Each structure stands twice: as C-alpha cells, then as structure tokens.
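A reminder from the course coordinator: this example appears on the midterm review sheet, so study it carefully.

Given structure:
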C-alpha cells in the first residue's frame, strides 16, 4: 500500500498523455497512411495500435521492465509524428498545420514526462515492499551521451523497420532485415534495461546501493555506520584509496556518504574481481534533494 501511495503525479500524467495519443500522433499517422495501398496501410496501422497498447499496458505496471518499455517507445512517438508530417507533405496528403503541430507537441510532451526522474522513481519504487523505497541513480555521462542514443535507435529501427517492410510487401528486404533487427532489438533492450535497475534502496537499517554497472554486488550502508551524507565537495580527491566513485561523472549534484568504518565492495574494474574496503562512496541519484530528505525522515543523517 505504501508503494502505491507514492506513485508520483507525473506517472498519471504520462498515462493520460499516452491514452489520448491516438487523437494526436495517431491522427497524423492515419492521415499519412491514407496515401498508401489499403492493405499496407491497414497492416502498419495494426502495428501502431499494438505498440500503443503495449506502452499503455506498461504504463499501468510499476516495474523496472515497464519503465524500459515506456522510455524506449515514448520517444519513438516523436519519430512517428515527424515522419507522418513529412510523409503527408511528400505524398500530397492534406494535413493541417494545427494537426501536425498537435501530433509533434503531444509526442514531445509525452516523451519528456516519461523521461522525468519522478516518473522513473515511481516505476522502480513499485518493487518496494514494507518500509522500503527505491530511487534511481542518474545515467553515467559517457553512457548517456555516447551509448544510449545509438542503442535506442538500433532498438527502434530493428523493431519497426522490418515490420514496415513486411507491411508494404518488400519481401526481400523484410526477410533480410528481420533477423538482424530482432537481434539488435533484443540486445539493445537488455542493455538499456540495465539503466532501469540502478538505484538506491532505503531499508529499515540504512540503504543499499544497487549498481551492477559499477559494482558486482549491491552493498548495504548501515545507519549505525553512516557518519555523514550530503553533497560532495568540489575538491574531493577521486584517487583516494578509501573512496569508491559510483557517480560515473553523471550530470547533476553528486552525493557522498562517509562511514565510521569500512564496507566491502567488489567494483567492476578490468581484470580479476577484487574486494576493496572503502569508507566513502560517491553516487548520483536522479533527485539528490529528495534522497537526502528521505534519509532525514529515516534519521539516517543526524
């Protein structure tokens, strides 16, 4: 019950925006498809409705896998909206300026809400039970800037491209691209899903840092061992032997937790996995202020 009550309003806003998407993005796509051969248009329309239903269903399930579905598919609606407007103009189909603007704006707003930190936290917190609470960690800088965009594009193109080719009867291209697209979609989705499984988990006796991209195993920081928790100083020595940096150079404020003793961690470094003892940990939640407020409510920081 507690986790249900913590569902953020942005989650309900996304559900509403996606529910009305057929009257914005869908209307533009339908207009553009009116220039196509009827069978192809019908098949592409069925594919779009299936994708819409998948995301709507995922929006109702507060789990990390649902967050991955939403964050992969919602931005794809922008490409569908822009592509529909372009296709309508190229094929000489009448699409009013207001309908085009509504389609693109609706897709952009829905994608923006899906990518908001509050929306992500609401999804992953659905796994919480009892007195737990989960909050996402921010995407590492290099991963977010250099890896996520091409992987996302590969997933969307690998899924949608072959389906469109089958629908329009381009059999040779469809047969060739389907296995390639399927492989790209599977491996790309698995990679993107790792970003939805990086979080801080508040538990009754402290909090757990769960980031398998940086450490082989989650590790607990007990309330009794935490000496301080707050913003990291700008001049902190990142090469200090007692410091573990889980921030990944992510954009935004970085927090540091200082311990009275040491905690055993197995960081993901090149070579053989090795247990190290650290007394300070840097990490970057998507909402640092909310994370500190939750820690204060639980009397983790004094």
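Designed residues:
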């Amino acid at each position: 019950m507690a986790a249900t009550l913590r569902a953020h309003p942005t989650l309900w806003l996304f559900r509403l925006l996606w529910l009305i998407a057929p009257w914005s993005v869908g209307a533009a796509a339908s207009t553009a498809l009116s220039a196509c051969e009827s069978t192809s248009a019908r098949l592409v329309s069925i594919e779009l409705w299936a994708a819409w239903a998948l995301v709507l269903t995922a929006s109702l399930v507060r789990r990390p896998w649902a967050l991955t579905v939403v964050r992969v598919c919602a931005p794809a609606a922008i490409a569908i909206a822009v592509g529909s407007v372009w296709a309508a103009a190229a094929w000489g189909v009448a699409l009013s300026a207001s309908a085009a603007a509504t389609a693109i704006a609706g897709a952009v707003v829905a994608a923006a809400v899906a990518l908001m930190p509050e929306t992500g936290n609401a999804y992953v917190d659905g796994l919480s039970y009892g007195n737990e609470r989960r909050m996402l960690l921010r995407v590492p800088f290099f991963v977010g800037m250099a890896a996520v965009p091409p992987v996302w594009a590969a997933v969307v193109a690998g899924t949608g491209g072959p389906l469109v080719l089958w629908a329009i009867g381009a059999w040779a291209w469809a047969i060739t691209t389907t296995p390639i697209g399927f492989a790209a979609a599977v491996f790309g989705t698995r990679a993107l899903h790792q970003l939805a499984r990086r979080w801080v988990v508040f538990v009754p006796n402290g909090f757990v840092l769960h980031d398998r991209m940086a450490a082989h195993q989650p590790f607990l920081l007990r309330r009794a061992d935490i000496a301080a928790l707050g913003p990291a100083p700008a001049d902190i020595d990142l090469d200090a032997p007692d410091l573990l940096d889980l921030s990944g150079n992510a954009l935004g404020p970085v927090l540091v937790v200082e311990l009275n003793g040491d905690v055993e961690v197995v960081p993901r470094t090149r070579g053989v996995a090795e247990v190290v003892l650290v007394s300070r940990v840097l990490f970057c939640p998507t909402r640092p202020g909310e994370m500190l407020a939750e820690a204060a409510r639980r009397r983790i920081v004094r």
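The chain is about 55% helix and 15% strand. The first strand starts at residue 133 and ends at 136.
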